[in-house]
Amino acid sequence: MRAIASSCVAVLVACAHAQPAEEAPAKPVAIAQPASPPPAPAPVAEAAPAPQVTQPVAAKPFVPQVAATLYFEFDKADLTDESRAALQAIAEKTAANVRIEGNCDERGTSEYNIGLGQRRADAAKKYLVNLGIAAANITTISYGKERPKALGHDPESWRENRRDDVFVQPAAVSGISR
């Protein structure tokens, strides 16, 4: 064992004294210098204000408002006297485009309420056509119970949601006349 230890010591001493072979002198290496920052842009003189051009201001697009809300009895599509009076007032105006949206309360299936809302909207459309508004100028859609006006689950909320919302766009805006 002594022989192995002395051999290891001899190897270590020899390695420690070994000199590396002489290398050729290193060639100088060019080190890239960071580029200098670009010069600051020259100050820009303020531009003279643009001449004022007077042009007519474009009219904002017409957004129809609810002209009337018609209320219905539970599970009915019959117009009430108040609904007929509201539709009469609309027909007396020069209404070019009318949109009637039928709605229902939350009771009943979605499919049934879509049909009931459509029957309600169609009843209002038929009444307006009888008053002289062209059927082509009236569109109807049913939302059934999908667009409640009142969010409660009580008789008053249900009454508010059994309705037609009638939107009117006057003839002067649409360019259509009766």
Describe the structure.
With 178 residues, the protein is an alpha+beta fold. It has a domain at 66-174: OmpA-like domain (60s Ribosomal Protein L30, Chain: A, 2-Layer Sandwich). Helix content is 34%, strand content 17%. The chain contains 5 helices and 4 strands, in the order αβαβαβαβα. It has helices at 2-17, 81-92, 110-130, 155-161, 171-174; strands at 65-71, 95-103, 138-144, 163-170. A 4-stranded mixed sheet has the order 1-4-2-3. Helix 3 links the parallel strand 2 (95-103) and strand 3 (138-144). The N and C termini lie far apart (122 Å). The model is unreliable at 174-178 (pLDDT under 50).
Short description:
The chain is of the alpha+beta class. The chain contains 5 helices and 4 strands; from the N terminus they run H-E-H-E-H-E-H-E-H.
Give the SSE map.
Elements: H1 2-17, E1 65-71, H2 81-92, E2 95-103, H3 110-130, E3 138-144, H4 155-161, E4 163-170, H5 171-174
Parallel strand pairs: 2-3
Antiparallel strand pairs: 1-4, 2-4
Would you identify the CATH H-level superfamily of the domain at 66-174?
OmpA-like domain
What percent of residues adopt helix (DSSP H or I)? 25-40%
Main β sheet profile: 4 strands, mixed
- Radius of gyration equals 43 Å
